[in-house]
Amino acid sequence: MQKNEIIKKIVTVSHYLYEKGLVPGKSGNISMKFKKDEFERVAVTPSGFSLKSIVEKDVVIIDMDGNLVYNSNKKPTSEMLMHLNIYKERNDINSVVHTHSPIATGFAFAEENINRLEGFGPIEEKFVQFVDYYPPGSIELAEAVSKELKNQDIVVLKKHGVVALGKNLEEATLLSEFIEESAKIQFVKSSLMANRL
Fold first, then answer.
1. Longest dimension (CA), the chain
2. If you count Cβ atoms within 10 Å of the first and of the last residue's Cβ in the chain, which end, N or C, has fewer?
3. What are the Cα distances from residue 146, in Å, to 26, 115, 143, 155, 162?
């Protein structure tokens, strides 16, 4: 894909995630890795914007060291280090979606496990893995998340939100939606079971 197509894709997916309620307010961020003249670049949402309202001129492009390559009048997301660390750890993925979807994030704050359901792929572990809490935007968070995602495509950040990966933005977005639905199903089931007691 060309740079302009990638920027349009970032905007389209940002609006979609907001409309689905997965990135309320100014929460959440997404990125897409691509090659330009043999160099790896990352298109990423800007800092301080609601994904509801970003337009093409707001999307930032950085290199793998975090240097601004395109749109230097905007700051990249405060979670830039997390996105870059994930890409450095995982050569097989090209997209990262970080959401604050309400039900899954509720589980993250309660530190309650979300069951892995069919649809995530092969179920090798019973629960979606947690990443310990570190301040948003910190190098500690970036390192912890990328380490946990070395062998899986989705994690829950304690007291924070969810990070999902994919070969493309559609794949990462579907996984983000799926974990929210999984958390919703688990919450409804628990509520119904509690009413039987």
1. 63
2. C
3. 23, 21, 5, 10, 13
Contact present, 153 and 174 (Cβ < 8 Å) = no
The Cα-based distances of 75 to 3, 14, 26 in angstroms read 18, 17, 14
Catalytic residues: 79
Domain that holds residue 22: 3-196
What's the total number of domains in the chain? 1
pTM of the model: 0.92
Q: What is the DSSP letter of 112?
A: P
Q: pLDDT tens digits, residue range 141-186? A: 999 999 999 989 999 999 999 999 999 999 999 999 999 999 998 8
Strands (E) located in the chain: 29-36, 39-44, 60-63, 68-70, 95-99, 130-131, 154-157, 161-166
- Size (the chain), residues: 197
Strand partners for 47: none
Query: Which residue has better confidence, 109 or 117?
Result: 109
Instruction: Locate the DSSP E strands across 19-94.
Output: 29-36, 39-44, 60-63, 68-70
Domain at 11, CATH number: 3.40.225.10
